[in-house]
TrEMBL record:
Gene: spoIVB
Domain Peptidase S55: 182-417
Transmembrane segments: none
SUPFAM superfamilies: PDZ domain-like, Trypsin-like serine proteases
Class of the enzyme per the UniProt entry, highest EC level: hydrolase
MF-aspect GO terms: hydrolase activity
Record-linked InterPro entries: PDZ_6, PDZ_sf, Peptidase_S1_PA, Peptidase_S55, SpoIVB
Gene3D superfamilies: 2.30.42.10
Pfam families referenced in this protein's UniProt entry, alphabetically: PDZ_6, Peptidase_S55
Official protein name in the record: SpoIVB peptidase
EC number: 3.4.21.116
Keyword Cell inner membrane: no
Length: 417
């Protein structure tokens, strides 16, 4: 009986030891349901001597991401001594890809597709009565004005002129606008405003947005970039901005408003007139802005591109971010990945905590304008900073680089088509 207890105790210690072995954990978790790299299939250490890994290609994967980045679906099996099956399953294995980490502070300007309604106000007519012609017709804050009397409108001045002209010449205006992703047409009667001497419909509109953010990565082959890590929304309506035209250039940071509990801090910067690079903005998505760059992109910490770390490689533990807190100088700071949230396709895939004393002293943690700062773990670019926790400026969210690359691959695919 005593002998059996000793054997049981030794077995328990052995399996406890195995539970902490990363290669054993790989066997237990396999197959993963997300993308993996080829090196993740192989075992290391003593396990590579005991377990044989076999894999066969099943079918070529035809997603937008795999078409651009290259991947294959494999049937992978692990066999003890090459005889006894341990685990097997299908995985999508990504071919290696390398990117240049960003960190540059960028100035962003966007011109919308159409003109966004950001507010409403009464029009005082000649009798002194307050009128709301657009509101009464059903136009709401967040709607996008596209055409007035068959004239495309792209600026607030074009909207103002088209409404005034319609009031003078026709008395009514045919307004085509976008509401909740639906195209709607309404006939509206502009009112002559005694205060301005012009015909108006009672709307405040905006045709562009501007701000400061951070470049996340550059593909040195295609010269496609990703930045911000989250969607750009209108400041008043919180609606996604549909891009008609836009660009990014270098910006310089001249002040920091330090973050504190309940009040996120921010970088205060200005655009650089003689920017060493310029970029187009072709997509504004949930995981950031994307387009092409011309000019010189330099990260002093990485003279060459580094490998991408896929979702399955991201782990809880230390990492580094790259961002600008003064001038145009990119600096390296220590952070910790506190939690990894798989299966999310948005920009909140991991919780990032700033641990670097120097960054905490300068900014209080994560601040506005830091969005897009690349995250590097174990020599691989794994994502970008996206949001700050309002009640804890030391922590925020990060997006998987994999989710950002999915948007880049679709952009390249669209260009090729």
């Amino acid at each position: 009986m005593k002998k059996k207890s000793v054997i049981f105790f030794i077995s328990l210690l052995f399996w406890t030891f195995l539970s902490f072995d990363p290669n054993f954990q790989q066997l237990v978790k396999f197959p993963d349901h997300y993308l993996i790299s080829k090196e993740q299939i192989q075992l290391k250490g003593v396990w590579s001597k005991l377990v044989k890994v076999e894999n066969d290609q099943i079918v070529t994967v035809s997603s937008a991401m795999s078409n651009y980045l290259g991947s294959e679906k494999l049937e992978v099996s692990y066999k003890l001594f090459g005889i006894f099956p341990l685990r097997s399953g299908e995985v999508e294995v990504m071919n290696p890809i390398k990117l240049i980490p960003g960190g540059q502070s960028i100035g962003v300007t966007l011109q919308t597709k159409g003109v966004m309604v950001v507010g409403q106000a009464p029009v005082v007519d000649e009798s002194g009565k307050k009128m709301f012609p657009a509101k009464e017709a059903g136009i709401e804050v967040g709607d996008i004005l596209l055409k007035i009397n068959n004239l495309d409108v792209r600026t607030d001045q074009e909207v103002s002129n088209a409404i005034h002209m319609a009031g003078e010449q026709k008395g009514n205006a045919s307004v085509i606008y976008k509401h909740n992703d639906q195209i709607v047409e309404k006939i509206i009667k502009p009112i002559f405003c005694v205060e301005t001497g012009r015909y108006r419909m009672g709307l405040f509109v905006r045709d562009e947005a501007a701000g400061v953010g951070t470049l996340s990565f550059l593909d040195p082959i295609s010269m496609q970039y990703g930045a911000l890590g989250h969607v750009i929304t209108d400041a008043d309506t919180n609606q996604k901005i549909e891009v008609y035209n836009g660009k990014i250039i270098a910006s310089t940071i001249y002040a920091i408003e330090k973050g504190k509990r309940g009040h996120p801090g921010e970088k205060i910067g200005s655009f650089v007139n003689n920017s060493t690079f310029t970029g187009t903005i072709e997509k504004n998505t949930l995981t950031g802005i994307f387009g092409s760059i011309t000019g010189q992109i330099v990260n002093p910490y990485y003279k060459e591109a580094i490998p991408v770390g896929w979702e399955s490689e991201v782990k809880v533990g230390p990492a580094k971010i790259y961002t600008v807190i003064q001038g145009e100088k990119i600096e390296e700071f220590e952070v910790n990945i506190d939690r990894v949230m798989h299966n999310r396709t948005d920009s909140k895939n991991m919780i990032v905590r700033v641990t670097d004393p120097r960054l905490l002293e300068a900014t209080g943690g994560i601040i506005q304008g830091m969005s897009g700062s690349p995250i590097v773990q174990d020599g691989k670019i794994i994502g970008a900073v996206t949001h700050v926790f309002v009640n804890d400026s030391q922590r925020g969210y990060g997006v998987f680089i994999q989710n950002m690359l999915n948007e880049t691959s679709q952009l390249v695919k669209n260009k090729a088509a």
